[in-house]
Each structure stands twice: as C-alpha cells, then as structure tokens.
Amino acid sequence: xxxxxxxxxxxxxxxxxxxxxxxxxxxxxxxxxxxxxxxxxxxxxxxxxxxxxxxxxxxxxxxxxxxxxxxxxxxxxxxxxxxxxxxxxxxxxxxxxxxxxxxxxxxxxxxxxxxxxxxxxxxxxxxxxxxxxxxxxxxxxxxxxxxxxxxxxxxxxxxxxxxxxxxxxxxxxxxxxxxxxxxxxxxxxxxxxxxxxxxxxxxxxxxxxxxxxxxxxxxxxxxxxxxxxxxxxxxxxxxxxxxxxxxxxxxxxxxxxxxxxxxxxxxxxxxxxxxxxxxxxxxxxxxxxxxxxxxxxxxxxxxxxxxxxxxxxxxxxxxxxxxxxxxxxxxxxxxxxxxxxxxxxxxxxxxxxxxxxxxxxxxxxxxxxxxxxxxxxxxxxxxxxxxxxxxxxxxxxxxxxxxxxxxxxxxxxxxxxxxxxxxxxxxxx
Length: 429
What we know:
Elements: H1 4-62, H2 69-74, E1 77-82, E2 89-93, H3 98-105, E3 116-119, E4 124-125, E5 131-132, E6 134-143, E7 146-156, H4 158-231, H5 239-270, E8 278-281, H6 282-299, E9 303-308, E10 313-316, H7 318-335, E11 341-349, E12 352-358, H8 366-369, H9 381-386, H10 393-403, E13 407-412, E14 418-425
Parallel strand pairs: 9-11
Antiparallel strand pairs: 1-2, 1-7, 3-6, 4-5, 6-7, 8-10, 11-12, 12-14, 13-14
Helix pairs in contact: 1-4, 4-5, 5-10, 6-7, 7-10
C-alpha cells in the first residue's frame, strides 16, 4: 500500500514524465504541420506563377482568357490584366459582388514584385456565405519581347486550409491518445522507480515505531528512578551527584519527548492518525493553552498577549490541536528575546480558523523557511540543543495541521521576528 507521501511523489513524477512527453509530441505535431503546409504553399506559389506565363502565352497567341466562366463564377480562379503602369485595365475577370469588393479592399496586399506570389491574409465571403482565401501572383505578359502588361491571378486556397486544419485535428487526436498512454505508462514507471524507496522508507518507519515503543518502558522506569533520587531528602549526596541526578532527570524527560514525537510522526506516516471526530471549542482551548504558556513566557521576561475570538468551533482531535498550540507557542518562547512580546491570535477568516503566533526573535532566513518543517532540522543547532530543542516540533505541527486538512506557513515579522500562520477549516453553519 502506498502512503500519501509516496503517492504524491508518484503523481508528481507522472506529471513530469507526461509533461515532457506531451511537449515533445506537440512539438513534433506542429513541426510536421508547419513543414507540410509550407511545402504545399511553396508548390502552389511556383505553380501559380508558371500558370500565369502559360495563360499569358495563350492570351497573346489566341486571345484566350486566362480563367473560365465557371471558375470566375465560383470564385475558384480569377484574373486581372492591366497595363504595366497599372492605369488601364485590359481584362477584368474578378467577377461581381462581394469577392470583387473584398479583393479590391485588400489591393495593398497584392504582390508588387513580378514573378512572386503571396497569400492574402483576410478571408473573403461571397453572397452565399462561402469563405474564400486567395493566393495572389503576378507575372508579365510578353509579346515578342515586349511587355504587354501585368497579369494578376488569384487561386482559392480555402480547400487546402480546411484540409490542413483537418489534418492538424487528426494529428492532435493521435497526440492526445499518445499523451494518455504516456500518462498511464508514466504512472506505472514512476511506481516501479519509487517501489524500492517506498519499501526502504516503510522499514525505516517500522523501525522508528518499534524502537520508540520499546524505549518507552525503560525511559519511564529511568524517569521514576531519577525523580526518586532527586526527592530523597534523607540521602546525603555531593554537589556533583546532585548535578548528575538533575542532568539525568532533564535528559530522561528529553528522551521521553523525543520518543513520543517519533511515535506520533510514525503514526502520521502510516496514515493511522485518528480521524476528525469531535467538535472542539477552539476559543476555550486557545485561551487555556495561552494562559498556561503565559506563565512560562513570564519566567523568561516575555509577554504573551492572547487575542482569541469567541465561538470558534471545528471538527477535530482536541488532544492533537492542544499539542499544536503548545508547539507553536513553546517554539516562539524558546526563540524570543528577553523583554519582548509574543502575539497569539485566534480569529475567524471567512470559513477558516486563523491561528497566528507572532514573535520578536531572531527570525528565520528564506533558505531555512523551506526546511523548518523537516524532521530534526534546527535553524540554530547550538542554541536549540541548549534550550532542549529536538527538531521535531514543527514537523509534528505540520503533521497535525495536515491531519485537519489545513495549511501552515512561516512568514517574516517586520521589522524583526517570525510569524507562524495556521489555517484550519471551521464548521459550516
């Protein structure tokens, strides 16, 4: 069974594979379409110029008009024969109506250089609503080496355009089919690539859970033993022994917290965290946790200012949410400077519960913002160790937030400090 972490990675890898393959397919399709259409257009341009010379020869020899009456009537082939200066029309086969108006409307787009051809960009519609798109070419009409005039000929290319777009549509359909196959095989390939990693990760998580579980009992025994030694008033200990007992108590508590956090994270990785089940009065919970942590902050010379709105209700795990608040506030207290303040805000933002913890500590760099939710990551390792930090608090906080389908962000507090922002969905009325 794939857990959520690796399923998300698998999907991202699939998107990358399919995206690269899809882009490659589109490039091939459009390159093929462009190449085919360019070759067709060049061939038609050359052919139309050659046809002008042929029709011009027949006009000089026998007076035969370049275009038939049928082609002029249908608008498939048109001709316009003028003197070299363009002032006198020798032959006008542009027909009547909208096609003639459309061609003269775009007279500036007619080819001006002899023996050349160009597409008229605009479509022209006749009286029946039929669309025409013309390729125009011009060449001289020669009579015994003398230029009689310039013959313009217009060939309707609408059929070629429709055929080209039909071909493009078919190519895109094939591309879509290939893209779907690419997505399927990309998903399968990503699964095969991730499978060994997933197995190793699962074994690691199992080891972490098993080790944490096995450590709980001996740690509990050690905690009781050290607390007993510490509280034994009849015993005569040296100062060194007393310091050693105090250190053992402290480290035992630290190891117990580490064990509990590791077990909680392991349950989160396995997807075995409890589902949302009860309605939690977040107003009361925030006020209670704020009052508890305010005493700890006061011991460090830090003011904890709580602003909690009333009637904040959401479905969730009350114990987990309580732990989330403790982690956020405790983290802010650890990294705040003496004689500063921490603002704790709980309010409603649209249909969400907004939790904000704003401190005036040393802040977090942009580089560290990307890593603070990683396990065992500490911004200031030396300072974290001296203050008892394990590097698991924010990772566990993110796990709890995701459990409740929310989001957590790290922001800068201007001019100094850090803002931890949590957004959770409230109950709908």
